[in-house]
Fold:
Amino acid sequence: MLRVGLALLFGTLLAAIAQAQSMGEAGTQLADLIFSLLQRRATVSLEFQNLTALAPAESSSFRAALQEALRKMGVETTTAGQLDTHLRVTVSENVRGLLFVAVISSGENRQTAMLPWSVPRPTERKPRVKITMQRMLEQSEPVLDILLVDSGSELLVLSPNKVASYRMDGGKWTPTGMAGVSWARPLPRDPRGRLENMAGGFRVFVPGTSCSGTVLPDFKVTCAPGNELWPLNPRDPSTMVRWVTDKNVLDDSANQLPTIENPCGAGWMMLGSAAGDTEDHDQIQAYEMVDGQAVASSDLLFLPGPVTALWPAETPGQSTLVFRNSKTGNYEASRLGVACAE
Amino acid sequence: MRLHAWAWLALSSLPLFPLSAATRPRYGGNLTVELSSASSEAIAPLIEETLVRLNEKGEIEPQLAAAWQRDPDRKRWRFSLRPKVVFHDGEPLNAASAAPSLAAALKKKYGDVNVTAGGQTIVLQFDRAVPDLLTELASSRMAISRPGGQGAPNGTGPFRVTTWEPGHKITLAAFEDYWGGRPFLDSVTVNLSTTRAIADIFDIPFSQTRRVLPEHIRIWESPVHELIALVSDNVQPAVWQALALVIDRTPIVNVLAQRKAEAAFGLLPQWLSGYAFLFAAAPDVARAKQLIFETRLTPLALSYPSNDGFVRSIAERVALNARDAGIAVQPTPNPGGALRMVRWTLESTDAAAELSRIGALLGLPERPLNAARPQELYEAERSMLDAHRVIPILFLPDVYGVAPRVHNWDAAQKNCGFTLHLENIWVDP
Structure:
């Protein structure tokens, strides 16, 4: 599964619209189920309850769509409680997602309809357009790093067990080769790794193993045990680091590391990631050093999942971001940039 | 896993970092664990693993099997083992080394299974369709292991056994060659059959929730996953319905369980099914009396486990409620009563599998269920409750005390099952 997108900014405006549409669709589908049980035009008393943390806006959207769809089918709803037929609609949830439950009571007769539903979680907000994000690819396997080679026409993707190459073809990254790699040691629990350009090919660094590879004439990777020094920032070779064997820690030389050129001034900016409001969401923010202190210089960029990699990129003004999308479970690799505010 | 190494590296040296970034994991250290039970079942997955596992949504994920496929009849299943996995004794995981323990475990449930091993491939052939095989293979009963020294398990999990004193003490060390990456902890010491509450992690049995805990200890509760229920197979339907109507769960939850449990009206908890609220009903003593108005009543013995004070107190409360309707119920630690109090623990996050398992415990006919179809599950559960064999009373969580030096506990426990997951936690020095 490979997807390519142009610059894509996360924002709650779009997310909120999508979610409202999703809730509306759920309301319509539940109305169909309810009507299939009623099998007639009727007036029913409606009771509505929400057992979830679904936002009031989404809940209202669902309810409005449900009532509108029922009305179109000839089923009028009222909050009066003395009608023969009573409809109780509950927004519930289970381990798999939302569950809409309708119970139609008429005398001793009780009928139930259930509609399981999955929606994106409403945690993204629209930031000001300071950090730009260009999505490169998405895959189910972890992405440790990506590297653009051959003037940006070829993309290398480092996964826990392989390096894959893609070529831009008709605006789409198309697989062109794959080289399995055999690490000298099992990868650490939270695998990380780096791809670096080198003359005639590329280098791969993972804890305990160093590899070299070529794209042409053959796409291949050769690995050997080792903890070689490597430049943390490809545009600043003076900062050399190494992994500690079997553990995802870099040695002590890796301090105060710039990540991205400051487009609005001299020096570097840093892109910091932090935990979001919930366990499965993260956020990115750009920082500048002002009087010896890190000062936030952009709005938060909200991500629908935890950040698994954030590296300086080979291209000036860009960083590589990888996060695991909590909804899809896929790893999404992007290029981040920082643009000056208008 | 929530790691932010780059951000941490870049920002750790900056004063007054304005964003509370996630804490970076730390390797090393020993974690002490105390369990009140003599059983080491809760830590078994740290040592031994299964071919597949269930995630928090009840979906099957690969574990020691990297891939699998089945025939259309679901009688023949082929599993490709994950490469480069080794047992704690250094033996590589392959079909030959994995098949003996798997075959032995499968034979206990499926007498007709034929296990064929070759290279990295295991083929399971059954005489009849086994649609729920993957869920069964995710059970710790189906763990892959090899004979170890002194009776200690020899598996492929993130920790290897260094001391094995069943029922007393187990020590584990990080398995450096673990295929999923070395755990953050260096070692784990597990003391069993103890309730001293002086470890980094300790369970708090329900009979002891009133005890004084050390300062700064955080109390953590799992999702409710243990059902306490009343079961019987020979009580008159009218009396059974009356009993179901008179049991008042509110004082049981508020007083006996100190609000750490949930009233159970269905067989699956709300978080798992999403529809459990449909079964909720208030006690109705008047209706219960009506139901048994002309029924000849004989006293009913209610058996409870003799060593379980918490269940005994629930049995006494049930007897009290029953008396309000004129039903004589006599709690007794002796087995063989017409009524029995049982504790059933959920084993997975697969609602369909759990409902089927409870149905089997009740001796009800098996029926195929699909966790993706809640309507179907609801109707099956409704009919199980209508069979007059079981009255759910209470759902209990696991309750643990967690010391402040323990990090990532919540996230580590979130993902799978109801056993302890220590491979992703780390501790302060």
In short: Chain B touches chain A through 58 residues (CB under 8 Å).
